[in-house]
Amino acid sequence: MIELRNLTVCYRKHPAIHHISGCFAAGSHTAIVGPNGAGKTTLLKAMVGLLPATGDIEIHGEAGYLPQLTELDRQFPLTVAELALAGNWRTAGNWARIQPQAREQAHEALERVGLEDFATRSLATLSGGQLQRARFARLIVQNAPVVLLDEPFNSVDSRTLDILLAVLDEWHGAGKTLVTVVHDLALARSRFPSALLLAREVIAWGACSEVLCSENLARAQAAIHGHDEDEWCERP
Amino acid sequence: MTLNELLLSPLTDFAFMRRALAGCVALSAGCAPIGVLLVLRRMSLMGDALSHAVLPGAAVGFILGGFALPWLAGGGVVAGLLVALLAGLASRFTDLSEDANFAGFYLVALALGVLLVSKWGSNVDLIHLLFGSVLAVDDISLQLVAAISSLTLVWLALNYRGLVLECVDPGYLQAGGKRGTRYHLGFVALTVLNLVAGFQAMGTLMAVGLMMLPAAASRLWADTLPGMILSAWITGLVASLVGLMLSYHLSLPSGPAIVLSAGLVYLLSLIIAPHGWHGRWRARRHKEN
Q: Could you write out the DSSP letters of every residue in B30-49?
């Protein structure tokens, strides 16, 4: 479960998101949607402690985090198996010996995302979709009860999309709390039970079918386009 | 000239040559992994900036204690860390990027260092600080270089996994904790220490050469991080030996001779290494056929 209370994040004194309060229930599967500049990535980064924020964030359990693909240095000389094994980082840390079970877990995770034949390949030789699958393998190895994914479906082909969605369904079935930034509204409607519509503030939050109605989407667009960066809201 | 006269006699006959080679071996051991990580983190020019940044500290140390090692090394470490800290703070609290701030602060530091030595020393002193003399390395300097190299290797061994993760995917590492900063600061501090170790032998201007040139060449030869570090270390050793022998037989200044030897390996690597021009050319031909 993730609880947010009056969460506000500012860039250079301008609010990127403000006064976000609410709860991602344990075992929920939520899509965060909103126009460009709505603060979706900012919200995720604040939740995992990458951005300074005011207000309270409470995450019950370890959080696995998938940053945007562009944040990964794919030129670094690392193999696919080593990247998957990095999911063991919080258990092994810097000094503990990598157990054979952990290597087995990494191998199984690569099999799950269809990359078992790519284990010894370097990251630089992978396509964007293959790289995204390798990063999902790392999250499978990490096996955290809360998973936050920032635009995991950007620039992936249909086969990769099917694999990634199947992994999400498995995690949802296993009771993990999933929060995913999604741009494709049709995908959000068809595969996510819950949604949070964001436009620097919460426009709507609840069942996906109710949140993603045309009225709310229009309100989100209007809130972004009508936003004056020099204005600060009056809410406490 | 026999092989013995070419390579062994200078080492067996002269203690300063043995000490110089030992210094270069130790220096390469520390500088190789630091240089490789600087290249992989796209911070190559930061290494150059930091090598210049130690000069005002070394200059103050020189004014206070002459060429006594504790004063020079201590001043260099303080100045290098101060420039790294100020550049980091300036990029955090202003709109200017970190590389621009490093450029700004190192230029100020370099000018300040040259001014201090020129005012209170002589041109000979300035040349010594800028270019060093590996052939004049004494036992205390050798111990300092060995200690810094040992510290570097131990710290990297203890923090290897986290450091790699911080390079590849910093957001993933830092999610849930803020340990990424620890790795970055530790790495910058080690970079400064190795540059200070280097300037004892090579001078502030040449110290970065033995760090960056073998590292840049290694990227063209190896596909893995351990392979790159090993390749950079071997390149550093070969360049040191060749440079020292050139210096001895041709009466050349030792620091530039070593750095130029490393530069020759780098230039050859650009052409013949698997990831250099020839490797790409072969891959393109393979695709066309």
A: HHHHHHHHHHHTT-HHHHHH
